[in-house]
Amino acid sequence: MASGTLADDIRLKLGTLSPAERKVARVLLAAYPAAGFETVATIAERAAVSAPTVLRFVARLGYGGFPEFQAALRAELDQRNASPLSLYEETEDTPGDDSAAGLMARSSRLFTTAVAQTLAEIPPHDLERAITLLSDRKRRITLVGGRFTHLLAQYLGLHLMQLRDDVHILPERDVERAAALTRLGRRDVLVVFDYRRYESDKMALARLAQEQSGKVVVFTDTWLSPTSAHAEVVLPSQVTTPSPYDSLVPTLAVVETVVAGLIAALGDEAHEHMRHTEDIARRTGLV
């Protein structure tokens, strides 16, 4: 078994799972750890798969059966209760070192570790699938974020607009938003940024897109937004930070990685699109 939580192990194995097994993984991760204590039948129903698929998934994790899987989950929870986590456990800094030098040293360690861990834990399959969906010119891309993460949704959206057509930020005004959502269909990709505290409207948006046969790409934290249960692709990031606020630095690194992949995937077409956009901007006095 991998070190860390059972959720970490599931995320690391996502790229090796069958599509049906990946549905089971998403259901478990979306309501972790509580979902792991449901019955096999309940998990199968929520994932829209068969009970044997759930058992195969558990076997993929290295367990001899479902009771053994649940026993491991109970042991993990017991360990958590006995050893409360601290935001600064991994920094090994001297308490009270609030000098500029101390803060910079702590931030350097935290951000370096968080970015490296984030990029190491994203399954290559999910990154490749995200790039494939976002580079498909037959698909319409719509992006939406939350209280802080709307900034990252706009950042990724602006890059996409320079590389390809039919990219939209979900409007804020109710009438415009409702009109945009009524157009969702099977050729749409909804990109959602949702981090704790998770926002209920993001769950509703992801479910709507899935119901309309569209694809959902979710950027979230390692605890996984509930929108993950409706996603084709989930790209989780660490959020460790020297302040009480969750960090978006690792997520930005993931966004930049996706953009690099998109440029490679679109090739000459992306270059031509950028050239044409730049030409129009110059002719209209925008640059």
Written overview of the protein:
This protein has 287 residues and is of the alpha/beta class. The chain folds into 2 domains: 6-80, Orthogonal Bundle (Arc Repressor Mutant, subunit A), CATH 1.10.10.10; 118-284, Rossmann fold, CATH 3.40.50.10490. Helices cover 55% and strands 9% of the residues. The chain has helices at 6-13, 19-30, 40-47, 51-60, 66-82, 100-121, 124-135, 150-163, 174-182, 200-211, 249-266, 268-283, and strands at residues 140-144, 167-169, 188-194, 215-221, 233-237. It has a 5-stranded parallel sheet with strand order 2-1-3-4-5. Helix 10 links the parallel strand 3 and strand 4 (215-221). Helix 2 (19-30) packs across helix 4. The radius of gyration is 21 Å and the shape is globular. Mean pLDDT is 88; it is low at 80-94. Residues 4-80 form the HTH rpiR-type domain. This is MurR/RpiR family transcriptional regulator. One of its GO terms (molecular function) is DNA-binding transcription factor activity.
Query: Which architecture of the largest domain would the CATH scheme give at its second level?
Result: 3-Layer(aba) Sandwich
Major β-sheet strand ordering: 2-1-3-4-5
CATH top level of the largest domain is Alpha Beta
Q: What profile does the largest beta sheet have?
A: 5 strands, parallel
Quote the average pLDDT: 88
Q: Would you list the SSEs in sequence order as H and E?
A: HHHHHHHEHEHEHEEHH
**Strand segment count:** 5
Shape: globular
Tally of domains:
2
What is Rg?
Answer: 21 Å
Structural class: alpha/beta
InterPro entries: Homeodomain-like_sf, HTH_RpiR, RpiR-like, RpiR-like_SIS, SIS_dom, SIS_dom_sf, WH-like_DNA-bd_sf
Keywords: DNA-binding, Transcription, Transcription regulation
GO molecular function, one term: DNA-binding transcription factor activity
Protein name: MurR/RpiR family transcriptional regulator
